[in-house]
Write a structure and sequence with these properties.
This protein is of the alpha/beta class. The protein folds into three domains: 2-64, no CATH class; 68-146, 3-Layer(aba) Sandwich (Rossmann fold); 152-230, Sandwich (Immunoglobulin-like), CATH 2.60.40. 24% of the residues lie in helices and 36% in strands. It is built from four helices and 15 strands. The chain has helices spanning 14-35, 40-59, 81-90, 246-253; strands at 2-8, 61-67, 72-75, 95-98, 109-110, 124-129, 143-146, 152-157, 162-163, 168-175, 179-185, 188-195, 198-204, 210-218, 221-230. Strand 14 (210-218) and strand 15 form a beta hairpin. Helix 1 (14-35) packs antiparallel against helix 2. The longest helix has 22 residues, at 14-35.
Length: 254
């Protein structure tokens, strides 16, 4: 169940603002009546609109919605539908929110973006599925019911800078049945490792700089991995000596 309310964000007491606005409305309305000009009703209407606009500017009203006392249930990717159904039966007055990355026809309010959860942050009681970022979660008072994790590579750490002729190692995490994971480059198969649920690593040494498309292959499926190989940076050597020698001359030529 959702309750709605109008809130005022004024620096002045609401009663004082209404009283002052009412007094001004009566005063200027009396002045308009004393003028004995045409279109008195129209001028009174314009005065009323101006007074209401001034009140809205000072009071700064806002319309807020809040979930009922049984809180909010948030559905994220990988949630268990039967668990969600059980919770809605136990807490029929709860409000169900579905994150934007959830596909399907779940029963609840589909959010357009994750930041909308900030409006309900203190009312979240259950989070189902893979979870939420920390910034939208309450500090305490909620339950996390983890769903089924997706199969495959769930994490892959690629070095920010890859240099030609230097060994590169990828670190990742595999979820699913044990299988072989193969790294394929432009020159063919580069590295292969037997993976099981948990961490893994792949290594190779790129031979030349440029932009290339690599592939990660497992269980007959492949995923493209674009990489940019940087050229090695030549080093400048500074040699300090008391007097020149044949060895240094030869080294400079080399």
């Amino acid at each position: 169940m959702i309750s709605a309310a109008i809130q005022f964000n004024s620096q002045f007491p609401v009663g004082v603002v209404i009283a002052v606005a009412g007094a001004l409305l009566l005063f200027f309305g009396w002045l308009e009546w004393k003028r004995e000009a045409r279109f008195l009703v129209a001028r009174w209407m314009a005065l009323l609109i101006a007074t209401l606009s001034l009140m809205a500017f000072v009071l700064r009203p806002s319309y807020s919605t809040h979930a009922g006392s049984e809180g909010v249930i948030v559905l994220t990717p990988g949630y268990n539908p039967s668990t969600a159904d059980s919770l809605t039966k136990i807490y029929p007055q709860s409000h169900v929110l579905i994150t934007p990355d959830v596909t399907g026809n779940g029963s609840g309010q589909q959010l357009e973006h994750l930041n909308q959860l900030l409006e309900y942050r203190d009312q979240i009681r259950f989070v189902l599925g893979t979870g939420l970022p920390a910034y939208v979660l309450p500090d305490s008072g909620f339950y996390f019911l983890q769903g089924q994790l997706p199969k495959g590579i769930t994490r892959l750490q690629v070095p920010p800078r890859i240099v030609a002729n230097r060994k590169v190692t990828f670190y990742g995490e595999w979820i699913g049945e044990a299988t072989n994971l193969t790294l394929i480059g432009p020159e063919g198969r580069i590295d292969s490792v037997a993976v099981k649920p948990g961490a893994f690593q792949l290594s190779f040494t790129p031979q030349q700089p440029g932009k290339f498309l690599y592939e990660l292959e497992a269980e007959g499926k492949s995923e493209m991995l674009p990489l940019e190989i940087q050229p090695p940076q030549p080093l400048d050597v500074l040699i300090l000596q008391d007097y020149p020698s044949a060895e240094i001359r030869y080294l400079k030529i080399f």
